Amino acid sequence: MALTRQTKEALLATYGDGLASSPHAFLLGFEGVTVAQAEDLRDRIRTNGGHYMVVKNRLALRAIEGTAMQPLAEHFTGATGVAFSHDDPVGLAKALSGFAKENPSVVFKAGLVDGQTVAAADISTIAAMPSREELITKLVFLLQSPVTRFVRGLNAITQQFVTVLDQVGTTKTE
Fold it and tell me: What's the predicted TM-score (pTM) here?
């Protein structure tokens, strides 16, 4: 089925607004994936704040010209899906890796994290990293720890002071 010029221009605009402007993206080969599985994949990606689209390779190549995704041009072959996010590449990689484990017909082609190309083999390494929320939680705990110890130390000093006063009062009444 041939696409009209207007349809192609609309697709180019969509690709440019979405995947070409995103700092984090992963290219997938998805031959053999059913419609239900594709919907499951889209839901997982949306849950992690990402977007997913199946692209027309020739149009996608035009859309990524001059962008950070241009080094991935060689991977736009065959059935290509692109999962992209503006926020959290680790959460996106976790969602994709989990789906790929359940559906072996999904193959990672390449990726882009913070504008840097990533080999397909390294995507599982990214997925193993702690998410942004986990890192923030650990950082807050580490920042809070010295303050908590300081407050406990002050509390112990006041408790000891009260205990000493109580003992002094007890000895004076005797």
Answer: 0.72
